[in-house]
TrEMBL record:
Matches recorded under InterPro entries: Beta-lactam-related, Beta-lactam/transpept-like, Beta-lactamase/esterase
PANTHER family: BETA-LACTAMASE-RELATED, BETA-LACTAMASE-RELATED DOMAIN-CONTAINING PROTEIN
Protein species of origin: Patella caerulea
Beta-lactamase-related domain boundaries: 25-371
Protein name, entry field: Beta-lactamase-related domain-containing protein
A Pfam family of this chain: Beta-lactamase
Length: 424
C-alpha cells in the first residue's frame, strides 16, 4: 500500500490559487489517465505550477522525479522554429527569401522558388523523402544527407497546399543553419549555445549520453497499427503523399527505438528534443511575455506577433487532418466570449505539448512517456490528462482575474468559424 501511495501522490508544487491543477493531476494518476509525466506553467513570468508523478520507467518501476527528462517528440519543432526566427532577428535570414539564396544546391527539381516562409509553414511539398536515408546522418554524415534533401522533388506544387513535415522539417532547417550561421554550427549546437545555455533552459536537441540516466523510458498505450486504421478512416489528404512522408528514415521504425542510447543523442530538431516540462514551459513563457527574460532578449516582439498569425490552414495533405501553422509553429485558436486569440507552440507524438499564450502571458507544457498514439488523430475531442490539466490551469487564471467566461480551443479554422457563427 505504501508503494502505491507514492505513485498516486504527485510531487512538486503549485502556487496558492492553482491548487485545482495539482488535484486534477492526482485524480489522473488515481484513475489511470496519467501513467507517468509532468506538467508545468508560468503565469506572467512566474513559475506557478511544476508537478510530476507516475512511472518514469514502467519496467523497473522507477518513479518520475523533478529532474526526470523525457522526449518531447515534435514539440521540438517549437525550439527549431525559434532558432530560425533568432537568425532572422540577427539579419542572417529573411522569411521572404528563397532557400536557394542560402543553399544554391537546393535550387533543383522544382524547388527554385520555394521561400523560407513557405517551408516553415509546411507549404513546400517536402514532407517526405523518396531516397532512403538514416536519421543518424544528421549527426554522422550531414553532407550526404544534404545531397539527398537537395535532390528531392516537391510532392505537391509549392505554396498551393500544405502538409505536415514530421521529420524532414528540421533536416532541411539544419542544412540552412549550417550555411548562414557565422560560426557554421548545426541547428542543435546553435540552440544549445545561443538559446538553452544563455536562458538557463534544461532542454536539449539530442540527449547527450552523460544525461541519459535522467531520461524516462518510452512506452505505448496502444498499437501503431490501430492508429493507422483510425487515421485512414478519417483521412482527407493525399495517400501517396502520406506514404512517402512516412517512408523514411530507415533507422526509426519502432516506438522503442527512442529508448536506444545511440538514437537518443541524434541532434534532430524535428523530434529529438529532451528536457523537463518546467524548462519547456519557461521557454514558451519567455515568448508569451514579450520575448525577454531578465533584460535579455530571445526574440523580437514583431516576430512573436508573426508566430500568432496562421499562414496555412485547412486539410493537411500528409496527415489528412485539419490544422493551422504559422512560422513553424502550430497555432491553436482560443475563443472566450466573442474574443479570439491564438496560442502557438507545438504538439508532440503521444500527447506532448508546449504553448505560449501572449494574451494571458502564459507558457505551459505537458510531458509524458506513456504515449497515447491516438492523441494526434482525436485532439482536442479526446479527454486525456493534458487537456484536463490545461482546463484546470485556465480555470485558476480566470478566478485570479475575476473572469466568468467559457473558454474553447480549436484545432482547425473551420471549427473556429463554426463556433463564431453559432454565437451570432
Amino acid at each position: 500500500m505504501k508503494g502505491k501511495s507514492k505513485i498516486l501522490l504527485p510531487g512538486g508544487f503549485v502556487k496558492p490559487g492553482f491548487e485545482e491543477v495539482k488535484e486534477i493531476f492526482r485524480e489522473n494518476l488515481a484513475n489511470g489517465l496519467e501513467k507517468g509525466g509532468s506538467f508545468a506553467a508560468y503565469y506572467q513570468g512566474e513559475l506557478v505550477v511544476n508537478i510530476w508523478g507516475g512511472e518514469a520507467d514502467p519496467f523497473c518501476k522507477r518513479q518520475w522525479k523533478e529532474d526526470t527528462v523525457s522526449c518531447f517528440y515534435s514539440t521540438t519543432k517549437s525550439l527549431a522554429s525559434v532558432v530560425i526566427a533568432h537568425l532572422v532577428d540577427r539579419g542572417c535570414l529573411k522569411y521572404e527569401d528563397t532557400i536557394s539564396k542560402y543553399w544554391p544546391e537546393f535550387a533543383q527539381n522544382g524547388k527554385e522558388n520555394i521561400t523560407l516562409e513557405q517551408f516553415v509553414s509546411n507549404k513546400a511539398g517536402l514532407s517526405g523523402c523518396e531516397t532512403p536515408y538514416d536519421l543518424s546522418w544528421i549527426r554522422d554524415n550531414p553532407r550526404k544527407l544534404g545531397y539527398i534533401l537537395a535532390e528531392q522533388k516537391p510532392l505537391w506544387l509549392p505554396g498551393k497546399y500544405h502538409g505536415y513535415h514530421p521529420i524532414t522539417f528540421a533536416l532541411y532547417l539544419d542544412q540552412i543553419v549550417r550555411r548562414v550561421d557565422p560560426k557554421f554550427r548545426s541547428l542543435s549546437k546553435y540552440f544549445e549555445e545561443e538559446i538553452a545555455k544563455p536562458f538557463g533552459l534544461d532542454l536539449y536537441i539530442g540527449l547527450p549520453k552523460h544525461l541519459q540516466y535522467r531520461c524516462a523510458r518510452m512506452s505505448a498505450r496502444n498499437s501503431y497499427g490501430q492508429y493507422r486504421e483510425t487515421m485512414l478512416d478519417t483521412f482527407k489528404g493525399d495517400i501517396r503523399v502520406s506514404e512517402i512522408t512516412q517512408k523514411n528514415p530507415q533507422d526509426w521504425k519502432h516506438i522503442n527505438t527512442m529508448n536506444d542510447t545511440d538514437f537518443m543523442d541524434i541532434p534532430s530538431g524535428s523530434a529529438h528534443g529532451f528536457g523537463t516540462a518546467a524548462a519547456m514551459a519557461k521557454f514558451h513563457s519567455i515568448l508569451a511575455n514579450g520575448g525577454t527574460l531578465n533584460g535579455k532578449r530571445l526574440l523580437s516582439e514583431n516576430l512573436i506577433q508573426r508566430f500568432q498569425k496562421p499562414l496555412s490552414w485547412g486539410v493537411d495533405l500528409s496527415y489528412g487532418m485539419e490544422d493551422m501553422y504559422s512560422l513553424g509553429a502550430t497555432v491553436i485558436p482560443a475563443l472566450e466570449g466573442n474574443k479570439v486569440t491564438y496560442q502557438f507552440g507545438h504538439g508532440g507524438f503521444g500527447g506532448q505539448l508546449g504553448l505560449a499564450d501572449c494574451d494571458y502571458r502564459v507558457g505551459w507544457s505537458y510531458l509524458t512517456n506513456h504515449l497515447d498514439i491516438f492523441f494526434s488523430v482525436e485532439y482536442p475531442s479526446k479527454i486525456n490528462s493534458m487537456l484536463l490539466l490545461n482546463q484546470g490551469l485556465y480555470n485558476c487564471i480566470h478566478r485570479l482575474e475575476n473572469k466568468v467566461v467559457t473558454r474553447q480551443t480549436f484545432r482547425s479554422h473551420d471549427q473556429l468559424q463554426k463556433a463564431i457563427q453559432s454565437k451570432l
